[in-house]
Amino acid sequence: MTQKTFILLDKLSVSEIKRGSKLSVGLDFLRAIATLEVLISHIRNLYFVDYNQITITSNLFVKFLYFLTGFAHEAVIAFFVLSGLLIGNSVFKKLQQHRFTWKSYLIARLSRLWIVLIPALLLGLIWDLAGNALSRGESIVYAGRLGTNIITEPVVNSISSYILMGNLFFLQNIYFPTLGSNGALWSLSHEFWYYMTLPVVLMAVVNYRKIKTFLIYLAVLLFLFFVVNLKNDPGLLVWLIGSFVSLFQKKIKLPQKHQSLFLLLAWILVIITLIAIRLNIIDSYADIILGLVFSILMLVMSFHQGKVKENIISRFSLWFSDFSYTIYLTHLPFLVFILSIVIKQSRWQPDTLHIFYGVALVLITVIFARLVYFLTERNTSKLRSYL
């Protein structure tokens, strides 16, 4: 690829996201919080009755707990923006340096995804088949009679070799259902195709004078939009918004004395937007609006230069975000299996004892995911180097 093909990218201002920088730690913190939100929301949804089914005296804490555990979808929007920023930053940087190749890009993306996805699919199958067999198919959760929107039909309906292969190649929620009880896998297929879309668009742009190459990329883009059906996916716009944040990091400068104030205001904007969405004040285009707000937060984070002084929050953020992908892919079938053993008739009331059980479930699931991480996600760089 010649120098001229990159002429439209030569003037891009792309910052490197350095490990340990204030931006990196801020992104780790956001990823950790979003992962924890998904986990506790799913535990609340699976194990505890809906708010209108509470029969015990509901206090302010219970109301706050139910309100707090209702942002799982919004947490996924945060993941999309985060992913867009990180992947977009890498793609823009390599294009600018004339180092982008499809081979290296696909190896980087697929090694990152498959090193956890393949074990997660197999583990999910084991949990689902074992749980269904132990309960002889009579468990209310595996039968789809739990009363939660996470599992609405018998789990065995979503288990087959075809569905397994569809999930392996990121076609779930497009042409196949998610495998078994692992409904969280829906977002992964969308994200994978977002990964493909950005470089296809950019390569079409930089090759606009090469008609044959341009038409090939245009055909691929049409395939993504109409066959993969990205034309009806608002998440793509959210992801792309995040990817373009990296282009503005060096363009906007703030005096150091104002940086903390702007960061606080950005977090307040995020919280207000989340509350407005939860109360249905923001309804139409909620995902896109939230994606824009998260992008503003990340842009403001990028204004903070230098390294962060280590503290308990930065250490937790780094530790938890390191295996957030593993938590996301493995937690649901594990929780459903445990549920099939401990809940026979109906979900729990949010009394003190059962809230304690819920906290224990969070800890047990995190420990389980951490063990899986040591065997999988932790070795991503080794796998990538081998390939």
TrEMBL record:
Transmembrane feature ranges: 64-92, 113-130, 192-209, 214-230, 236-252, 261-279, 285-304, 325-343, 355-375
Domain of life where this protein originates: Bacteria
Any GO CC annotation of this UniProt entry: membrane
One GO term (biological process): polysaccharide biosynthetic process
Keyword annotations of the record: Acyltransferase, Membrane, Transferase, Transmembrane, Transmembrane helix
InterPro entries attached to this UniProt entry: Acyl_transf_3_dom, Acyltransferase_3
Domain Acyltransferase stretches: 26-369
Molecular functions per Gene Ontology: acyltransferase activity, transferring groups other than amino-acyl groups
Protein name: Putative acyltransferase
Organism (species): Cylindrospermum stagnale PCC 7417
Biological classification of the source: Bacteria, Bacillati, Cyanobacteriota, Cyanophyceae, Nostocales
